[in-house]
Design a protein that fits this description.
CATH architecture of the largest domain: 3-Layer(aba) Sandwich
Bound molecules: phosphoric acid mono(formamide)ester
Order of helices and strands: HEHEHEHEHEHEHEHEHHEH
CATH class of the largest domain: Alpha Beta
Shape: globular
Number of strands: 9
Strand content: 15-25%
Distance between the termini: 24 Å
Radius of gyration: 19 Å
Oligomer: single chain
Helix content: 25-40%
CATH topology of the largest domain: Rossmann fold
Number of domains: 2
Structural class: alpha/beta
Strand order of the largest sheet: 7-6-5-8-9
Number of helices: 11
Length: 307
């Protein structure tokens, strides 16, 4: 039995196979309508979510399976003090696979140690968000035709943004990847990403605070929201929340074939006027999230690809 807790739980080869499967699903959706008949997905969400929870549910329904779960800690027995370990023991009796989002870093890892069904990390605190990363990789591969030889700008809250941490860990395994890390000083990437991932792998990167200057060299711009829920005081959040606002003027500085991604939700960091730009790929990215999660469920449940 396998879990997905970190993007590195799958090799580059396995990710390639999973993205191929997701692409086949995208183009042949009806073919997959019954591959998970009789299977159940539990969504255990201790933190708010729109895309991740509902795309997981849509994914399982598209595969012919069923879904059950809770959308907040308050509506589960966590509110009465039940541990993650006990909860997953129980869920293992009710479902075949589960996706867990939790505010505490490492909670899905703990769940995996007590689970008899595959556990998928659907976001743990400011740590990792591996299924968003699979979504991002599918989107980039689809738009650019490759996952190597790219200059990727990551902009916004690089300290608390778990999607950024997972994406960096995943992309450093491809050749010719350069990062431009665009953030205020206070929201720079955590030390463990800088030293244990970027420096260790000798990946080319620079840390800057000016988005305009970075724009012309980027192949991908990955915008992120300043993560209000991870701040210790509101004053700091208010000071930093509008550090970057991508608008039409800034888009004029970018290459014609640069694409803008964002894990969403957005707050102010991308002006709605950018939505009409053909390079704005964030809504398409959310759609890819369904296909990649369908592929992931099939992979972890060891479901055969239909002919
Ligand atoms: N991208 C993402 O994780 O969105 P949600 O928080 O809505 O799930």
């Amino acid at each position: 039995m396998r879990h997905l807790l970190n993007p590195l739980d799958f090799s580059v080869e396995e990710i390639s196979q999973l993205l191929d499967l997701a692409s086949d699903i995208e183009h042949n959706l009806p073919k997959y309508a019954h591959v998970c008949d009789g299977k159940k997905l539990a969504t255990l969400f201790y933190e708010p979510s729109t895309r991740t929870r509902l795309s997981f549910e849509a994914a399982m329904l598209n595969l012919g399976g069923n879904v059950l779960g809770f959308a907040s800690a308050d509506s589960s027995s966590a509110a009465k003090g039940e541990s993650v370990a006990d909860t997953i023991r129980i869920i293992s009796c009710y479902a075949d696979i589960c996706a867990m989002r939790h505010p505490k870093e490492g909670a899905p890892l703990v769940a995996s140690q007590f689970s008899s069904i595959p556990v998928i990390n659907a976001g743990d605190g400011g740590h990792q968000h591996p299924t968003q990363t699979l979504t991002d990789l599918l989107t980039i591969r689809n738009l650019k035709g490759r996952l190597d030889n790219l200059t990727v700008g990551l902009c916004g809250d690089l300290k608390f943004g778990r999607t950024v941490h997972s994406l960096i860990e995943a992309l450093v395994r491809y050749t010719g990847i350069r990062f431009v890390l665009i953030s205020p000083q206070e929201l720079r990437i955590p030390d463990y990403i800088r030293t244990d991932v970027l420096d260790k792998k000798q990946v080319e990167y620079k840390e800057v605070d000016n988005l305009d200057e970075a724009m012309p060299e980027l192949d991908i711009l990955y915008m992120t929201r300043v993560q209000k829920e991870r701040f210790f005081n509101e004053e700091d959040y208010i000071r930093l929340k509008d550090s970057y606002i991508l608008d039409r003027q800034k888009m004029k500085l970018a290459k014609k074939d640069m694409f803008v991604l964002h894990p969403l939700p957005r707050v102010n960091e991308i002006s709605v006027e950018v939505d009409k730009d053909p390079r704005a790929a964030y809504f398409k990215q959310a759609q890819f999230g369904v296909y990649v999660r369908m592929a992931l469920i099939m992979t972890l449940l060891e479901v055969e690809k239909p002919c």
